[in-house]
Amino acid sequence: QVRLVESGGDLVQPGGSLRLSCVASGLTLDYFDIAWFRQAPGKEREEVACFSNSGRDTSYGNSVKGRFSISADNGKNTAYLQMNNLKPEDAAVYFCATKYSPGYYPGRPCFSPDRQFDSWGQGTQVTVSS
Prior knowledge:
This protein is an all-beta fold. The chain has strands at 3-7, 11-12, 18-25, 32-39, 46-52, 57-60, 68-73, 78-83, 92-100, 119-120, 124-128. The strands form 2 sheets. Strands 2, 4, 5, 6, 9, 10 and 11 form a 7-stranded mixed beta sheet that branches. Strands 1-3-8-7 form a 4-stranded antiparallel beta sheet, with no helix packed on it. Strand 7 and strand 8 (78-83) form a beta hairpin. The termini are far apart.
């Protein structure tokens, strides 16, 4: 059974930085794509960043490009989200999620309506406020 545990959420001032971690168990991360999503109160869930082991690629939501960076340490079954220059609109609960993606598919989109993420963590709260 896949289990994902996020950590690192905190209160930070605008312009500050945070690094979120997601530790996965019950899987071998090499065979999975892993992503970060966020959801703020009253808003829809938003795609933030994706690390594709199957595509050997990363992708980002438009609102975080250039400020956030996703990485993964497959040996530790852990993904990270480095968030820089945080803005009040980045405040949300951040979730990590995985989907089984064996093989190598260069150029295949990590975020795709045809390949949904199916295992989710409980989330970690990020608050951006002065």
